[in-house]
Design brief:
two-stranded antiparallel ribbon, alpha+beta, about 375 residues
Amino acid sequence: MENDSNGNQNSSGNLDAVLREYLKKCEIQQEYLDRHFPRNIPNDVCNHAFIEGIKFENSFQPKIHDFVPFMKYGDEELFLWTHTKDKETALVSLVSNIIKDKNFWKNIGTVIQLSYSYSRDFEHDIDLEYRWFYYFDSNKSIAEHTIYQDSDRNSILNGTILKLTDLYDLSPIIELLLRDDKAFTAMSNFYSSMRTHYCCLICELEKYPVRKHLSHEPEIWEQANVISEYEIAIVQACRCVEALIGKPSNKDNRSRLLDHKKKWFDQLSIDPDSTFQKAGTTYIDFYYHLFELRNAAAHSYGTIPFHLERKQAVEAQCFASLLLDGYVMKNIISKEDTVEKLSINSNIIEQVDDSISTSKTYPVND
């Protein structure tokens, strides 16, 4: 110890030495982590992602530790992992390192999430998250794995339980969104619109005779809380339409207008001069109106649009929904063709028992 001016000992020298030793240990530890658990995911030691938020009942008779190929597209392949005795089977993605060299990775998890919501008229939703496993080994339990950013390991088994046939039923939509950037962009924007402001498309578009959810405007004490939601919903619905059919052409230029109308037939199988029942006007007229509404919603210049009604947001969302349906139906392929395109394991689909739903795993022969 060093002495101060009064001859008393102080510990500053020892404290400095302890601090230097501590920092050196931290540096060594970080070097070890960087070497054995690199964070530039995906990489050679961390390229398996457990897709949290979805799982499958076991009527297709999987055994514990089964790790079975199910679907593949581009640089990503999905496997079914039965990780625990008598627990639902998980979906795991094996991802190529190549995706880091791309400007944008349209991952299958996001596409499944969009497809699921679309198939249910955006009435139901699933939130999927990639949980990355280091040194993945299907013969080990989840507890034995090291997980990247493992702040909530207990949540990993949460999720919506489906049958494998449910995912197979979604496969044509999944294939379309993976193949077609226009479809992906349009559906992503519409999904955003519906999450911001929900409306029951089944009732609003009168898909069934009985309307369970009657449309209504907010009470006066609710209005201030929802106007901004209407604005965002309108803007995102319009972006969906714009992704599908583009911006409106000049109405005064007849030849350009006719060319534009032809696009409606060719790309959506919709007659633009037919009636959009929800608004009581033609599709083409509402299309022009929508962009005027979008411009007002997107550029309010700091003012509050007190005149904005829920009815306008709902009409915009219904309009976008019908155009999106038209595009999907025009461009989707059959399940049979999807099996080939996505390398779907049809054998395991055939093993699903539609009469039961169980978490029981199949016995392993000794």
